[in-house]
Amino acid sequence: MEENTVIESGIKFSDIEIWDNSKRAKNLLIVFWIVIALTIVGIISGYFELELLKSAQMGNYVDEKAATANDLRQGIIGIIQFVAYITSVVLFLMWFRRAYGNLHRVGLTYLKYNEPMAIWAWFIPIISLFRPVQIMNEIWTETQDQIKKYDTSYNVKNGALLIT
Questions:
Q1: DSSP E strand boundaries for the chain
Q2: Which residues pair with 6 in a beta bridge?
Q3: Which of 68, 71, 73, 155 sits in a 20 to 30 Å window from 14, CA-based?
Q4: How far is it, in rounded angstroms, from Cα 74 to Cα 103?
Q5: How far lies 6's CA from each of 15, 20, 115, in Å?
Q6: How many C-beta neighbours within 10 Å does residue 150 have?
Q7: Residue 14's pLDDT is what?
């Protein structure tokens, strides 16, 4: 197979197969935008609920249908937001693991952690406060270095995080 050719599961550089992560990244960005939109809708809906409650507090008559409709609207928005948040977490973890796994597939033996740690690091108490950042720093720096190896004209971007 020819160097730099796209294959079904990713890109093949000589004998190194890198799994394509672009579709996961695209889907993740779409879900992030949905979460942002739902957050805005939730804020607006919350404002309407607050106005309804203020009206009731001032002694104004609040129609039972209006109160029920408000509760239903808030509940539906909450459920949709919950589903969107869970979806974004799952998609992010899938993207994150593949990004870290690609570094292992390239053959970097000096990486600090194994591929499954890219997911488990988020769920282990105390470790979840710093390990994901360490793994992301590794993803960032090693990806930059690998791109530079294959494209010498590539300018390495200084994206070091403040948390190291």
A1: 5-7, 10-13, 16-19
A2: 11
A3: 155
A4: 44
A5: 13, 9, 23
A6: 11
A7: 54
131-139 contacts at long range (C-beta below 8 A, 24 or more positions apart): 132/96, 133/161, 133/163, 133/164, 134/164, 135/96, 135/100, 136/96, 136/161, 137/161, 137/164, 138/100, 138/103, 138/111, 138/112, 138/113, 139/96, 139/99, 139/100, 139/103
Question: C-alpha angle with apex 99: 98 to 103, nearest 5 degrees?
Answer: 105
What was the pLDDT predicted at 27? Answer: 94
By three-state DSSP, how is residue 18 classified? strand
Q: How far apart are CA 99 and CA 111, in angstroms?
A: 13
**Per-residue confidence (pLDDT) for residue 2, from 0 to 100:** 43
Q: Let me know the angle formed at the C-alpha of 153 by 148 and 159, rounded to the nearest 5 degrees.
A: 55
Looking at residue 1, what is its pLDDT? 40
Q: What is the mean pLDDT of each run of 10 residues along the chain (164 residues)?
A: 45 64 92 97 96 90 91 96 96 92 82 87 92 88 80 72 52
- Per-residue burial over 23-58, b = 16 or more CB atoms within 10 Å of its CB, e = otherwise: ebeeebeebeebeeebeeeeeebeeeeeebeeeeee
pTM, entire model: 0.76
Structure tokens at 146: 């690998």
